[in-house]
Amino acid sequence: MLISLLQKFLTAPITQNSKQNQSRLTVIFWYSLSLTFAVGYIFMGLRQAFTSKYIVSDDAREYISWIYRYFNPDLFPGDLIADYFQSVTPIGYSIVYKIIAALNIDPILFGKIFPLVLGLITTSYCFVVAMEILPVPMVGFLASLLLNQSLCLHDDLFSATPRDFIYPLVLAFIYYLIRSSVFGILIVFALQCLIYPIIGFINLLILLLRLFRWQNGQITISHNRKDFILFVAATITAGILILPYTIQSSQFGPTITAAVARTMPEYWDGGRFRYFTHNIISYWFDGRDSGFFALIAPPQLLFGLLLPIILKFQSHFLLTKQVKDEVKLLLQVVIASLIMFFTAHALAFKLHWPSRYTHHTFKIVLALAAAISITLILDAALRWSRQNGRQILILGTITILGAGLILYPSSLKVFPKTPYLAGQATTLYIFLQKQPQNIVIASTSQEADNIPIFAQRKILVGKEYALPIHTKYYAQFRQRMIDLINAQYTDDINQIKDFIQKYHVTFWLLERSAFLPEYITKNTWLQQYQPAAQQANANLQKTLPVLATLINSCAVLETDNLVLLKTECIKAVAKT
Fold first, then answer.
1. Do 358 and 337 contact (CB within 8 A), yes or no?
2. pLDDT digits (tens, 9 = 90+) for 64-121
3. 142-200: per-residue pLDDT in tens?
4. Fewer CB within 10 Å of terminal CB in the chain, N or C?
5. Burial class of residue 470 in the structure, from the number of CB atoms within 10 Å of its CB (0-12 exposed, 13-18 middle, 19+ buried)
6. What is the H or E stretch that residue 259 is in?
7. Packing angle of the helix pair 91-102, 107-133 (nearest 10 deg)
8. Is the bond leading into 419 cis (omega within 30 degrees of zero)?
9. Residue 213 is inside which H or E element, if any?
């Protein structure tokens, strides 16, 4: 009797013959539980975000800094970094923040709060998509639980960047595709093209794959005219919406080629991107930017790999009869993602990093497939128990499995793993905010990465902004870095003066440890800029650089490890 009740509560499908009120209550229970866990996980992450005023997501510094131009058009005048990241920011994402600016909402605050909205939308669509494939409410709960755990293990929800929108948009697209809602499909597809075009390519391929059918061992063309109309409409939509973004970002192009990238330390271990590796398995399998199975976690998602096997043995898993044909859509998502993955490799790096085409969609597919697999296995186990009377064994197994799935985050040292970084130089930010808007700060310190977003002032270079993707941008950026290193470690005051005049530098931010040899030799970022880094280290071995001798006389601000020098003082010394 207990097993029957348990089976009815956990794995009983919602069918047309089900009692309406009872079915509604069951769905509401599991859906509410899904939202509860989602909100709990998100609030755990947001708690970290609000521990200080000067906390921001790591990658948000790239995307949000220039957005302050919407509040004040005079900010970042002629700024290479701001201009570049504004050009590569998807149009839809820019529109979102333009609206935020119109409402006078701080972008940093919005970036911290909005994950809650996106998380709830993601959870809701995940729940209903799972129910559309297998109409068992617990499937919706398990799918959303696994997906939310996965999102909280990486910066896929808290990054305050365009990729945060991937999951709700992909799941919404799948849902409307299952429901055959042309309007819903095209609206979501348009949003994808505007906010994260990469996913638009994948879903366009999905629509193309649906023009063909596999019947009796042969590929046939769909006779559904609606499929062709939808594909053509989506293609036109993609052309209209993605083309302006391509033109906008092309001003800093073309993108670097794979052949050239192989010669650059920026693309190897210790570089800004660790794309290439001598381990061929890692390169293709789990490389963060190059592997098709990169960043797939938690391990429970691997239950999804069992689904094709389980569906082959329907006589042992009777609940498989309730699995709808829409499950084939999961395979179409995988195929489309892999096609784009290999295309991105072939065209490196014109279509961004290859792993971006599988990392996100695989998580979604595996979460849905794992939830279905677990439910089918559980149902089979409950049926077996009813026939063999092994109630204690099954109840114990269910308890352990449920506890393992739900309590998994508590076994981790850090959960959720958020990308939030705290700015340490509050005094520096406040001081710079009071300076004219056209000032330029030169620095090799990583603290410079925080200046654009916390002080809204222009920096010459910064590690976070050193993206070696578009040649016209990075050529200028690299030259700036080389010139900065050369000037910072020279013993020629005139070279420093020329550098200041060339880049109109107003302030020079130094770390107190900047003139120790290990500052250069152990700094993987500086080591990318050769031969400047080697020459700087050689200079340090011979004599103390001029700039080091000016710290006491030209400092206008000092913190624990930072010294801010005014370049007017440096130029005055050069004249004497």
1. yes
2. 999 999 999 999 999 999 999 999 999 999 999 999 999 999 999 999 999 999 999 9
3. 999 999 999 999 888 889 899 999 999 999 999 999 999 999 999 999 999 999 999 99
4. C
5. buried
6. helix 258-261
7. 130
8. no
9. strand 212-215
